[in-house]
């Protein structure tokens, strides 16, 4: 394993230092380090962050390898500065058995670009009718700790309660896609002024808020851990704020796109902006940004949702919801939060690693720590060209936008997965 000496790099915004990576760990830090056998990276002007951790990635394998594979999604993740991703269960077949979660986990190991931690389905086939084999998935080689029917809401309160009770035994988490399905039948976009003007059926904010309110009460009653996926409304923030103030064991995520883009994008009728939950309003964005800074929302998660061309480049009503996210998330965070490195490390690495129980991730580079880290050039600006993305899909809402920041290098256990901004393998 080649050692690497990164000279003159700022670790999470601190004064520049040298970092020596050897045998999978950060071996040494300090100024004027030497290591004749090491590859040297000039870190001047760069910031080292603990490798980013995504709690919400759709890798599409097994089943839709035309849209993404574990390998292509892992490469996209590494290029985005990630060292670990949690893979959502809505594959085909659904990841609702030990066999499927082990398959995804093994494919992640084979790709070797990021740690792929499978999320198991809560219900068989995501059908919302009976609990999947949660215990068998937890006991499998994939050691599943987070369960989610993401894409669908676990709408039945009795089933949600039982799921929370079941995972309590091993301190597991139910990650909810909060959408009351009766309130969003036929929904095409956020319910508001723009949907009225366009004559499209709306997805009301209350459909999200009602489920979060119910679920925090259930989690409180059971004493279990709840995670709320892709929070998108100001009202949801208030529900979470109250729940956290009462000590409910709830964590929450927001996506980069919900921090930046509004429902006005629907006026273009370009399905690249169709996503679930939908893009909301400026008022929601302001509330989400404040909640993220405060900690009412714990983390940024991408909801990276690759789709093949035929599922996305069609009429709005027929397009599948979802956007790419892994290769642009850090840039959007920089754009939205500014160079608040400690906050970025907290919301995109340390806290998601802690929620997922990924102990070797989310730790700031320091002597003895596993060398899972990424180097960012905050001064760089780049134009997003969909054709340049490592994802097999092209559905980025940031095409041809100029975004701040560039990932220069990423290391997984001391091995570079990205060097000079390019994937190593
Ligand atoms: Zn979802």
Automatic annotation (TrEMBL):
The keyword Metal-binding applies. Zn(2+) 1 binds at residues 56, 58, 150, 303. The keyword Zinc applies. Its EC number is 3.5.2.3. Keywords: Hydrolase, Metal-binding, Pyrimidine biosynthesis, Zinc. GO terms for molecular function: allantoinase activity; dihydroorotase activity; zinc ion binding. This is Dihydroorotase. It comes from Micromonospora halophytica. The lineage of its organism: Bacteria, Bacillati, Actinomycetota, Actinomycetes, Micromonosporales. The gene is pyrC.
